[in-house]
Amino acid sequence: MESTGPTILGIDVLWVATLLSAVAAFSVMLAVYAATTVRDPMAKRVKALNERREQLKAGITASTSKRRAKLVQRNESADRIRSFLSSLKVLQESQVKAAQIKLAQAGIRSKEWAPAVIFGRLILPILIGGPVTYLVYGTETFADWSPMKQYGLVAVSFIFSYKAPDIWLKNKITKRSHAIRKGLPDALDLLVICAEAGLTVDAAFGRVSRELGKAYPELGEEFSLAAIELGFLTDRRMAFENLANRIDLDAVRGVVTTMIQTEKYGTPLASALRVLSAEFRNERMMRAEEKAARLPAIMTIPLICFILPVLFIVILGPAACSINDSFINR
Q1: Which of 162-171, 208-217, 289-298 is predicted most confidently?
Q2: Distance between CA 274 and CA 197 in Å, rounded?
């Protein structure tokens, strides 16, 4: 059935308007749902920190392996993956430690899931690369492709499926590092205030984590865990080093180095942290200026692809409709 409404370039204007109205209504409903279902970001993190506290208690106060097993709960799925990889002789301690560090940097506290990352590298090429290989060489789906293109598709599927766990972890680490970098200058300012007020280092970390927990939940979680480790671990240097290992940022490593030197030599903590805070604020301002300088070049492609065509339609559309109507009337 042909439409009787106005058309532009053969497209029904009423149909396009109806479709855009439906998209707008769905977006409004989605925004209302997102605004009314906001959850406390610290609830899950506080639970994870409490579990970490119990693990530290288990590692320090438990005298036998039986009591430690009661306090530290094991994950059956992770244990099965570990035993399966051990039976295949593909589980290396160096890979497990590297995966544990990446999981901690991504905000995943359970070190038991480190073998799952190695298991993903092993099983995903079979699950993804196998079907792609069958589609390319076992069916006629890509028969019109050249042999080089077929081989490239199979190779890309295997490489991507093998690197998929690492790409996923790297993405989570990058997002978490950016979130922590934003709140680090404010956290250092609060640490300076707490140090000048006479609080100890672990009490200062706990206070800063409570104050910045809602604004920067990732940073609040890390500082809370550092405060717990400073209170339980016998070597305070180990707590600072764990904080540096859990966050993939050079700025945090600088803060940790300052903390270790302060603990070792007794140098003033407030003055060192004040210098670091000013330096990080200047660095954040430079990154903002860099993004602002790149904005015109980034906006060029969206301007050409999306804004200019709409502008041409708005300006030339009525004239094109008038010319079309005049030709039809003749």
Answers
A1: 162-171
A2: 14
Angle at 207 between CA 217 and CA 255, to 5 degrees: 75
Separation between Cα atoms, residue 263 and residue 283, nearest integer Å: 26
- 282-294: pLDDT as tens digits: 888 888 888 888 8
pTM: 0.64
Closest CA to 225 of 238, 215, 67, 188: 238
CA-wise closest residue to 256 among 212, 226, 288, 211: 226
Q: How far apart are CA 21 and CA 26, in angstroms?
A: 9
Is residue 111 classed exposed, middle or buried when 0-12, 13-18 and 19+ CB atoms within 10 A define those classes? middle
Question: Are 41 and 214 in contact, with CB atoms under 8 Å apart?
Answer: yes
pLDDT of amino acid 42: 59
Please give the span between the terminal C-alpha atoms of the chain, in angstroms, as a whole number.
Answer: 26
- CA–CA dist 278, 251 (Å, integer): 12
